[in-house]
């Protein structure tokens, strides 16, 4: 869905939307949460249709410009870690618009100079699993 080869990833929060019934890719975007503005991200989150699978991952810094409204909208997609996401944390998440529970698809590693695996950066996060199709 997203890669450097496709030239559709960037600094901040990278997002891919997938149709929850068909698995068809719908959209990919990234939002710079260091030097950018959170307003376009909030509008994008509000525009997501019910039944859409939402995949997110941070690159570099995904938290500096996040405000309470953006965090609340992501929490409504099923995230539990978004409230604690901080500067240069590594985070991947898969949730859904209209989800009634918390998503089991989420990994978060805090940026901590005492425990970072790489100089100035926490360990890489990886996640895999099967996401159920939305039923009518």
From TrEMBL:
Keywords assigned by UniProt, alphabetized: Disulfide bond, Lectin, Secreted, Signal
Family: Belongs to the FAM3 family.
Native source species: Phoenicopterus ruber ruber
Subcellular location: Secreted
Molecular function as annotated in GO: carbohydrate binding
Pfam families: ILEI (PF15711)
Protein name: Protein FAM3C
CDD domains per record: ILEI_FAM3C
Annotated PROSITE patterns: GG_LECTIN
One annotated Gene Ontology cellular component of this protein: extracellular region
Domain ILEI/PANDER stretches: 11-98
């Amino acid at each position: 869905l997203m890669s450097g080869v496709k030239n559709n990833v960037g600094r901040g929060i990278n997002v891919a939307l997938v149709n929850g019934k068909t698995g068809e890719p719908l959209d990919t975007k990234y939002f710079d949460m260091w030097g950018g503005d959170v307003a376009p991200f909030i509008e994008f989150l509000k525009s997501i249709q019910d039944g859409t699978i939402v995949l997110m991952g941070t690159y570099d810094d995904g938290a500096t410009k996040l405000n309470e409204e953006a965090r609340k909208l992501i929490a409504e997609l099923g995230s539990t870690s978004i409230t604690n996401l901080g500067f240069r944390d590594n985070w991947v998440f898969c949730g859904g618009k209209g989800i009634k529970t918390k998503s089991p698809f989420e990994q978060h590693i805090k940026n901590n100079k005492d425990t970072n695996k790489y100089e100035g950066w926490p360990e890489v996060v990886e996640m895999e699993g099967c996401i159920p199709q939305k039923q009518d």
